[in-house]
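Quick one, tokens below:
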């Protein structure tokens, strides 16, 4: 089901084609400037796909174009899927948001919080609050990522895992046990910090379900939603559909093939991260997004109850504040004024501080290689965007442009 075609004209779903041309020119400029190689944009509204545009190449060296069935590394767009997995178990009584993580991963029972000192000789103190499932889902657990490059705890992560993001340990269980020996960045529940929390959540799902995380996803989410091209590995025969991973050249800013960063995904993997790692297509991820918009149901298939999805897309941050007010400053918190964070998804609380014309209540998340999606219940709208440049310096700009161009074209 990888192919995706428009079922209506842009005007048929209330979009102005002439205004969408602005977005196309902007995208083409990013590609011709060398910062990106290829992109795929999809707009679904009111039950129909009304806009699909593939541009550029999925493999510039081989001259292969982006196609609607191109397979993309979605990195952190894995996180909403993992969050749905956890909420599914909450509905079944196998998990509770208030459960301590140590109930499932005992190594987290002695968590300590960083106070002062260098990475090789930190001063820590015992955490006063146990890390809970809710903390993992909201990124308020006090965990971090090695690539933040910001403080001694980030450095300790790099020392522990040698900067290996894709497969930092032989298994998810081994990774979490090692992670639990490192100090927390802050007392759980007091701040927001983008982190490995969703990887820990995936291990909790494994323990609570008795299945590997990849098997649980296949059985309970990907299979029922008919997301046939989504997984941690792909069949050898589909390798040619996978977009090449690129990274910006630090001297020129041009996208350069980065084969060594995340190689072919046709081989079996023992590490199945909850925060990253899945590959997917536009058609597959549209199924997942439609399930969210349908408050847990799409085409007669129900994954979650409506009230569960409502809770996921509500703001859970302390005091009802936005990410900018409670986050440790990083590449992943800058530009998030006006946005809250729920259970794996980020709702727009106020368009004014966010400097956007998107709808209040729209919710979203993106991936490290530039992929992005959002769901807008007020407009019955889903937008998907795919590209494959890891940590592109202007990724946030591109995402802002996408929202402005889509909403400025939404006139009917």
């Amino acid at each position: 089901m990888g192919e995706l075609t428009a079922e209506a004209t842009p005007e048929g779903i209330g979009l102005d084609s002439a205004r969408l041309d602005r977005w196309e020119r902007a995208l083409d400029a990013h590609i011709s400037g060398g910062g990106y190689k290829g992109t795929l944009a999809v707009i679904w509204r009111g039950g129909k796909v009304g806009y699909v545009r593939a541009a550029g190449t999925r493999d510039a060296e081989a001259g292969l174009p982006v196609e609607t069935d191109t397979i993309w590394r979605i990195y952190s767009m894995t996180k909403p899927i993992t969050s749905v997995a956890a909420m599914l178990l909450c509905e079944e009584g196998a998990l509770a948001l208030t459960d301590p993580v140590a109930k499932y991963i005992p190594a987290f029972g002695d968590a300590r919080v960083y106070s002062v000192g260098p990475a090789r000789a930190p001063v820590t103190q015992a955490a006063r609050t146990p890390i809970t499932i809710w903390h993992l889902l909201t990124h308020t657990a006090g965990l971090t990522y090695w690539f933040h490059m910001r403080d001694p705890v980030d450095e300790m992560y790099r020392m522990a895992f040698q900067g290996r993001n894709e497969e930092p340990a032989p298994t998810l269980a081994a990774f979490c046990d090692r992670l639990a020996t490192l100090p927390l960045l802050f007392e759980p529940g007091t701040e927001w910090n983008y982190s490995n929390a969703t990887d820990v959540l995936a291990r909790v799902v494994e323990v609570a379900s008795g299945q590997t995380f990849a098997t649980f996803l296949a059985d309970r989410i990907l299979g029922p939603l008919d997301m046939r091209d989504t997984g941690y590995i792909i069949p050898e025969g589909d390798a040619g559909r996978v977009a090449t991973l690129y990274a910006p050249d630090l001297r020129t800013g041009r996208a350069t093939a980065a084969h060594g960063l995340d190689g072919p995904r046709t081989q079996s993997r023992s590490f199945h991260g909850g925060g990253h790692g899945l590959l997917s297509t536009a058609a597959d991820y549209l199924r997942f997004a439609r399930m969210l918009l349908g408050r847990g149901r799409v085409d007669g298939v129900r994954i979650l109850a409506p009230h569960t999805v409502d809770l996921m897309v509500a703001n859970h941050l302390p005091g009802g504040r936005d990410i900018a007010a409670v986050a440790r400053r990083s590449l992943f918190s800058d530009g998030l004024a006006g946005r809250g964070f729920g259970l794996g998804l980020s709702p727009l609380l106020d368009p004014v501080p966010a400097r956007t014309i998107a709808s209040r209540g729209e919710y979203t998340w993106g991936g490290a290689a530039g992929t992005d999606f959002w769901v807008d219940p007020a407009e019955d709208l889903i937008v998907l965007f795919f590209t494959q440049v890891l940590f592109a310096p202007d990724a946030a700009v591109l995402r802002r442009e996408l929202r402005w161009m889509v909403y400025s074209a939404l006139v009917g």
